[in-house]
């Protein structure tokens, strides 16, 4: 995607309001950390400033539990469900919430896998291949079938 297309898409997603002429320093820092992460220097984005008003209480709980999954590790949808007091039967609802994650990489939904560590449920561009690449980049041990 061209830079102009990316900027237009971000403006649409930002909603109403005037766009700032300058990018705030904290945003530049997140961008720098994301670049370092994608170059193979895993970063912890737990301190990233996110506009939680964009999501409901359930999504926020799911995303907070997902942020706790550290680089190089994975958790299952059922484990995330249990972490927010749903029990394993809530795994599908967790998957639905993660499919609408507005902050991929910062809220590392790629670290959430199905029972048995299977790579499923990744709606970002590139799908499962992107999910697997991110996990490998972070040093996660993956099982092959």
Throw out a few tags for this protein.
Arc Repressor Mutant, subunit A, 3% strand, two-stranded parallel ribbon, mainly alpha, 145 residues
- Secondary structure category: mainly alpha
| Mean pLDDT, all residues | 86
Strand order of the largest sheet: 1-2
CATH topology of the domain at 52-137: the name is Arc Repressor Mutant, subunit A
Encode the helix/strand succession as letters: HHHEHHEH
Q: Strand fraction band?
A: under 5%
Distance between the first and last residues' Cα: 33 Å
Description:
This protein is mainly α and 145 residues long. It has a domain of 86 residues: Arc Repressor Mutant, subunit A (Orthogonal Bundle). The protein is 44% helix and 3% strand. It has six helices and two strands; from the N terminus they run H-H-H-E-H-H-E-H. Helix 4 packs across helix 5. The radius of gyration is 16 Å and the shape is globular. The N and C termini lie far apart (33 Å). The relative contact order is 0.12. The mean pLDDT is 86.
Task: State the gist of this model.
The protein has 145 residues and is mainly α. 44% of the residues lie in helices and 3% in strands.
Secondary structure blueprint with pairings:
Layout: H1 3-14, H2 25-38, H3 57-67, E1 75-76, H4 77-83, H5 91-99, E2 112-113, H6 127-137
Parallel strand pairs: 1-2
Helix pairs in contact: 4-5
């Amino acid at each position: 995607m061209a830079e102009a297309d990316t900027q237009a898409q971000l403006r649409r997603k930002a909603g109403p309001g005037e766009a700032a002429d300058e990018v705030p320093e904290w945003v530049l820092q997140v961008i720098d950390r994301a670049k370092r992460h994608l170059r193979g220097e895993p970063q912890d984005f737990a301190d990233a400033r996110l506009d939680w008003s964009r999501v409901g209480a359930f999504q926020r709980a799911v995303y907070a539990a997902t942020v706790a999954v550290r680089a190089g590790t994975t958790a299952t949808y059922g484990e995330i469900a249990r972490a927010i007091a749903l029990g394993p039967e809530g795994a599908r609802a967790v998957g639905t919430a993660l499919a609408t994650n507005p902050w991929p990489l910062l809220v590392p939904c790629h670290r959430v896998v199905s029972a048995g560590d299977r790579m499923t449920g990744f709606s970002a561009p590139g799908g499962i291949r992107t999910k697997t690449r991110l996990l490998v980049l972070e040093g996660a041990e993956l099982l092959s079938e």
